Amino acid sequence: MREQQEPGRVVVVGAGMVAHRFAEQMVARGGGWQLTVVGDEPYAPYDRVHLSDAITGASVEDLTLDPSVWDDERVELVTGDAVATLDRDAQTVTTRSGRVVAYDDLVLATGSWPWVPRTDGADLPGVLAYRTLDDINAITGWVARRRAELGRPVRGVVVGGGVLGLEAAAALQNLGASATVVEFADRLMAVQLDAGGGEALRVLVRDTGIDVRTTTAASRVLAGPDGTVASLELSTGEVLDADVVVFSTGIRPRDRLARESGLGIGERGGVLVGPTCRSSDPRVWAIGECASHDGECAGLVAPGNTMADVVVDQLFGGTTTYERPADGTKLKGVGVEAASFGDVLALTPGALEVTFADPVARTYRKLVVSDDARTLLGGVFVGDIALYSSLRPLLGRALGADPSAFLAPEGGAPATLDVPDDVVVCSCANVTAGTIRGAVTEHGCRSVGEVKTCTRAGTVCGSCVPMVTTIVNRSLEQAGVAVSNAMCEHFAMPRAELFALVRAGAERTFSEIVAAHGTGRGCAICRPVVASILSSLGVGHVLQPDQAALQDTNDHLLANLQKDGTYSVVPRMPGGEVTPDKLLAFAQVAADFGLFTRVTGAQRLGMFGARQDQLPEIWRRLVEAGFESGQAYGKSLRAVKTCVGSTWCRFGVQDSSSMAVRLELRYRGLRSPHKFKVGVSGCARECAEARGKDVGVIATAQGWNVYVGGNGGFTPRHAELLAEDLDDDTLVRVIDRFLALYIRSADRLQRTAPWVAAYPGGMAALRAVVVEDRDGVAAELEAEIERHVAGYVDEWRATLDDPAKVAQFTPYLNAPERTDPDLAYVPRRGQRVPLPLEVVAAPPEGRATTAVAERVCTLDALTPERGAGVLVGGSVPVAVFRLADDRVLAVQQRDPFSGANVLSRGIVGDRGGRPTLTSPMHKQVWDLETGQCLDPVGKDPQDLRVYRVTVDGGDVLLGS
Fold it and tell me: Domain extents for the chain?
C-alpha cells in the first residue's frame, strides 16, 4: 500500500458530472484536504445524462447534482470562470477573471467539446450544437424565435445519428419542430448497434415522426435572404429545408491546458494517463472524457466516475488502478428503446451471434457469445430492452443457460440467473452486486429506495434499477423478509416508497418523477398515484397542464362519472348542514338543468345526469350560492357524518355537530391513497356510526374517544380505539398525525382498515407513533396537515377562475355546441333516469366512414398525453389523443363494454413500450395504435376502430 500524501489543496479543473463524483468521494473520505472545483459554465455540476429533460420542463435545479457536497467547509465551487492557464512549475492555475489558485495536486476534468466537421455555412445563425445546458437554451430560444418570425412550424435537421443526435431530434420535436436525422454511416447508432439493430431502430424512429437519411453527409449549410440557415445540402445532392441545424457529430477531448503546459498527449488527443490516472506530471491527474488511457478517451459517465474513484483512492494512499468498466449504451428521451453493451459486432475471434428478430412486434435482440456459447461477449436490444439491465453485468462471464433461452419470444432471463458478488451492476457509481446484497444483509435496507440511498446504485442514469431491484428482492427473500411489489411496470417500488422519494426530492411533475424514479410513459396505475402524491404535497391544481393528463376517471373532470357518461354533482355540506337559501339554490339548479336529485349516504345532496359541458355552469351557480366542491370524486375526505349532538339531542354529551364541521373544514381537499370518511357521534348511542369510518370520534363525558381503521364496503371492519378522553385540540392533533402518517406510508388504493391491520407492530405500535410520539415525528406530521389547511383552495372555484381549465369540459373540439348524441332517458318516480344501455342503439355499421381527411382541430388544441372528443362527418364521436412526442392517434369514442361515449376521458399510458388507452369506465386497456383490446372479456370482439391521423401545418386531420 502506497503512503498517503500529506493533506493539501486539490484543485479540480472542470465542474461536470465526473468532477462532482470526485468531490463527493473526497468529502466521504474525510481528512484535512482543501478542495477547489473550478468550472467554466455558470451552473453547478448538473446531470448531462438527462440533458434532454430541460426541453420538456426540467429546470436547472431539477438537473443539478446533489448540492450538499458544496456545503462542506473544505470544499469551494467556482462557476462561470474558466481556467485560462496552467503553470506546472509554480503549481498554480489562473482563471479567466485573473484569479490565481495554487495546488498540491491538480485534477483535470475538463471533459470534451462537440466536434463539428468542416462544413461551409456551419457558422450561420441557426446552426447549433447539442452538448450543454446553454446549447439547450440556445436551441429552445432559436426555435421559438423562428416560429414567431415564420408563422409556421420550424423545420429542423440534426447532423449525426448517434445517441445524442437522436436525443437532439426528439428535443426538436418536443419544441414543436420537425426533425430529420442525417447520418454518415449506413445505420443509426453505428457505434453501438449492428446492421440488424440499426435497421430496427430506423423503423422505430421513423414511426415517431423523425425522418432519417443514412449513408450521406452534410455538404454545406445554405443561408436564406435574412442571412440565417435555410437549408442543408447533402453529399448526395439532396437539399433539406432547415430553419435550424443541430450538429451532433462526436466529441473531442478538451486538452488545451495539457497541451500548452507540455503534458503528455494521447495519439488521438486527451491527457495521457496510466493505470493510476496520473499524467506525465506526478502532481497532475486527469479523469473523464479529457483523459486518454490505452489510447482511448471514454465518452461515458461510468468510466469517468471510475477514474474519479481511482484518483481519490490514490490520494488517500490506496493502490486502486483503473480498469475501464464494461461499455453500455441506452437510448433515452426519444420514445424508442435501444441499448447495447460489449462486442456488438462480434469481432472477437470465434464469437457466435444468437439473434431473435420480430418485425411484427418491431423488436430485435441479439447476444454475442464465445465459441462454446457459454461466455457473454455482448448484446444488442432494440424495441424491447428488458434484458439489458439483467445481462449487462454478466459481460465476460458465464451465462449459465442456453443463450437462446434469453431471447425466446416470452423473453426474460432464466429465474435461476444469479449475479456474482464481484460483478459491477451500476457502472455509473461503480457498485457491485455484493455491495447491493450487503446493503440488505448488513445495513438493514428493506427496499430498493433504501439500497439506492445506501449504495448510490441506480442514482445516475437509472438503467441498472431493474437489476438492482432483482438483487434486492432475492436478498430479501433469502433473508426471510417479505418483498414489496412494484407498483407497475413503470415504477419498481410501492406507492409509499415513491411518496417518500417525491416528498424528499425536487421533482414536481410526472415527467420529472418518472425520469428520476421510473421508466416509460406511465399507465392507469401509476399516473393517478403520482397525481395523488402531488396533490397530497400541495403541488398545483389537478387540472393544470402538467397534471390534467394524470387524473383518474373522476378527477379527470372533477365529478363522478356515471354509467351513461354523465356526471354527478355533490357540493360540500359540512356536518350535513345546509341553510334554506342554499337548499333553494340547489333545487333551482337541479330543476333548470333537469337533473336527478337525491340525498347521498354522506349526509349531502347530489345531482345526477350532468353532461360534461354543463358542469362549469352548474358549479358557477353553486359557487355563487356559497357552495364549494364536496370532492365526492376524489381519493380524499368524502364527508364527516354526524348527529346533532348536544346542540339539540337530549342525550348528547358533546357538541358533535360543531366538531364535525371543524374536522370537515380542516381535512377538506386532503388527497390520500384512497378515500376516507369520518364520523362524529355526540354520545355512546353512536347515531353517526363513527366506528364504521376511517376515523371515528365518539363523545364521552370527559372529551372524545378516537377510533381508526373502520369501514363498511365489501369487507366491513370496526375501527379500533386509538386514544380516549381527549380535549378538542388534542383530538385534532391526534387525527392530524394519523392521517399524515397514513398518507405517507399506505399503498395505492389502500383504505385505512387494511393499512391499520397491516401496520408493523399492530395498534400498539401505531398508538406509540401517533399518540406517544415514539419516533419523534409528531410535529412533522402535524406540520404537513397545517400546510394543507393553509394552502386549501376550492378546486371548482379555482377551475371557474381559469378559462383554460374550463375549456377542458368541451365535449367536441370542432363542435363545442354539440352534446352527446347517444344520451337517452326515461321517467321514473317524478324524475328522469338513463335508458338502460342495452336499449340504446349501437352506432350503425359504417356510419363513421369518411373518404376524405377531415380537419377536426389544431395540434395546439390537444393537451399532451390527454384525450379530447371530436365529431367526424358532423355526427360520429371520435376520441383523439396527442402523445408527448406530438404523435396524434384516434379511436372510436364509444366504450364497447359500457356503450358510453367516454374513451377520450381515459388515461394514456404504455404497456411494453406501446401506447395504451385505459377506459375511464371499467379500466379495460387497448393498444392505442392498433385498437386491440389487451384485456378482452368473453368471446365477442371488443377492439376499437382506429382512425387515420395526419398533422398538416398544425392542423389535425382524420380519415377512415
Answer: 9-114+253-315, 127-247, 337-413, 418-483, 495-552, 555-629+794-809, 635-792, 810-816+840-959
Q: What is the DSSP string of 583-645?
A: HHHHHHHHHHHT-EEEE-TTS-EEEEEE-TTTHHHHHHHHHHTT--B--TTSSBEEEEEE--G
pLDDT tens for each residue of 766-824: 999 999 999 999 999 999 999 999 999 999 999 999 999 999 999 999 998 888 766 77
φ/ψ of 911, rounded to 5, equals -135, 115
- What CATH code would you report for 635-792? 3.30.413.10
Helix (H) or strand (E) holding 137: helix 133-150
575 backbone φψ class: left, alpha, beta (φ>0; ψ -120 to 50): left
Grid coordinates representing 379? 448484446
- Pairing mode of beta strands 291-292, 637-642: unpaired
- At 93-107, the pLDDT tens digits run 999 999 999 999 999
* Three-class DSSP category at 469: helix
Rounded Cα gap, residues 669 and 674, in angstroms: 12
pLDDT in tens, 250-305: 899 999 999 999 999 999 899 999 999 999 999 999 999 999 998 889 888 889 99
Q: How far is CA 413 from CA 386, 405, 424, 724, in A?
A: 9, 7, 18, 55
pLDDT of residue 715: 53
Residue 753 makes CB contacts below 8 A (sequence gap 6+) with 694, 709, 710, 711, 715, 717
pLDDT band at 462; cut points 50, 70, 90:
low
Predicted local distance difference test score (pLDDT) of residue 410: 43
**Positive/negative CA dihedral, 775, 777, 782, 788:** negative
Among 568, 559, 578, smallest CA distance to 626 is for 578
Strands (E) across 709-782 are located at 720-726
Cell 354529551 sits at which residue?
Answer: 653
pLDDT at residue 914 is higher than 70 = yes
Q: Which of 929, 954, 781, 773 is nearest to 860 (CA)?
A: 954
Any residues with CB less than 8 A from the CB of 371 and at least 6 apart, and which? 350, 351, 352
Give the pLDDT band (50/70/90) at residue 460. Answer: low
Q: How many CB atoms lie within 10 A of CB 579?
A: 11
Helices 448-455, 433-441: inter-axial angle, 10-degree rounding: 110
The CATH class for the domain spanning 418-483 reads: mainly alpha
CB 104 within 8 A of CB 4: no
- Strand bridging mode 888-892 / 946-952: antiparallel
Please give the Cα distance from 913 to 352 (Å, whole number).
Answer: 29
What's the average model confidence in pLDDT over 399-427?
A: 68
847 Cβ contact list (under 8 Å, min separation 6): 873, 875, 876
Write out the three cell numbers for 335: 420514445
CA proximity to 770, closest of 829, 720, 828, 822: 720
Mean pLDDT of 911-936: 88
Residue 928's Cα: distance from chain center in Å?
20
First to last CA, the chain: 75
Fold match between domain 9-114+253-315 and domain 127-247: yes
Would you say residue 391 has pLDDT above 90? Answer: no
Q: What is the pTM of this model?
A: 0.52
Residue 847 has pLDDT above 50, yes or no: no
Pairing verdict, β 291-292 and 271-272: parallel
Query: Is the domain defined by 127-247 classed in CATH 3.40.50.720?
Result: no
Characterize the bridge pairing of strands 34-38 and 9-13.
parallel
Picking from 103, 150, 109, the residue whose alpha carbon sits closest to that of residue 5 is: 103
Q: What is the DSSP letter of 841?
A: P
Q: 337-413 in CATH: which number?
A: 3.30.390
CATH architecture designation of domain 9-114+253-315: 3-Layer(bba) Sandwich (3.50)
